[in-house]
């Protein structure tokens, strides 16, 4: 079996996926038409041509623009349904999906619109092929602490369906510490915690996410490699990093895939996982990320299995379920 076939056949978990970043140009254009929303693109080709980024912010500007087409319950159903169908195709048996409430509430679209749409799609995928899903509610860090607190309050009726909180959007200038009190409150409510840190931001932001936000995982974290003491801490605690290879190339965190440090992080004993981040903007879903690594990095079969097993270890699944999937990862014959 080639490494390509093995990538397809391994059961996988995805732990870093923004549902708004899975909005494909086709659905964006269809919903723009449905709701009469003006977009600065006339054709699918123009949308795709616009997806050239030189920084996280240059991507976020288009990501928030695209999200404007999401308006009613069925739009959110379709968005979630399309992503879950990709999970089935890529053999992603478990996924922990981030959503950004403020991207919608700031436009007057409330939890009572997007949550029923998301949950209807998740239930359908669960019923049709046993898809396993958790939800992570992410706060936009360029907005205020007050806005994050308001979001947490609005989420209270939905907390039975939300497993964790996250922190995303513009990293530089918005350190984790800004959200210390919101994360403390989320912890009191029984929510797990993750945060983007060390994507564009410095290693200090990873320290803060660990020590001030008490996170259970770090999203990205690739810049941790600049700080030996931090690397030792991450290895010692087996703190997971949800690394997103194609995203890091598209956003110029590394010049090209041959320069990516994911295998170095893995070799230094960190609990590294592979994820798609915003697949419709960055050139592919989860298997595409592994395929790009296989093409441009000296990825061995053992490293591939380790990365995939890590995706279950680092997940928020119960221990017995994690072990069942890890056994399945090592049982796939070559
Ligand atoms: N929101 C969506 N994708 C993101 C990323 N890669 N970093 C920060 N915020 C995001
Ligand atoms: Zn992300």
CATH class: Alpha Beta
Q: How many domains is the backbone divided into?
A: 1
SSE order, as H and E?
A: HEHHHHEHHEHEHEHEHEHHEHHHH
| Radius of gyration computed on alpha carbons | 19 Å
CATH homology group: Metal-dependent hydrolases
Low-confidence stretches: none
Helix/strand/pairing category: alpha/beta
* Biggest sheet statistics: 8 strands, parallel
CATH architecture: Alpha-Beta Barrel
Approximate helicity band: 40-55%
* Record field, number of beta strands: 8
Tell me the fraction of residues in β-strands, as a range.
Answer: 5-15%
Give the termini distance in whole angstroms. 5 Å
SS element count, helices:
17
What attributes does this structure have?
334 residues; alpha/beta; TIM Barrel; 51% helix; binds adenine; binds zinc ion
Describe the protein.
The mean pLDDT is 98. The chain has a single domain (3-331), classed as Metal-dependent hydrolases (TIM Barrel), CATH 3.20.20.140. It has an 8-stranded parallel sheet. The chain has helices at 3-9, 25-35, 44-50, 56-67, 73-90, 101-105, 111-129, 145-155, 180-188, 203-211, 228-237, 245-250, 262-267, 279-282, 286-296, 301-313, 319-331; strands at 12-18, 92-99, 132-140, 164-168, 192-197, 217-220, 240-243, 271-274. The chain is of the alpha/beta class. Helix 5 (73-90) packs parallel to helix 7 and helix 16 (301-313) packs antiparallel against helix 17 (319-331). The N and C termini lie close together (5 Å). The structure holds adenine and zinc ion (ZN).
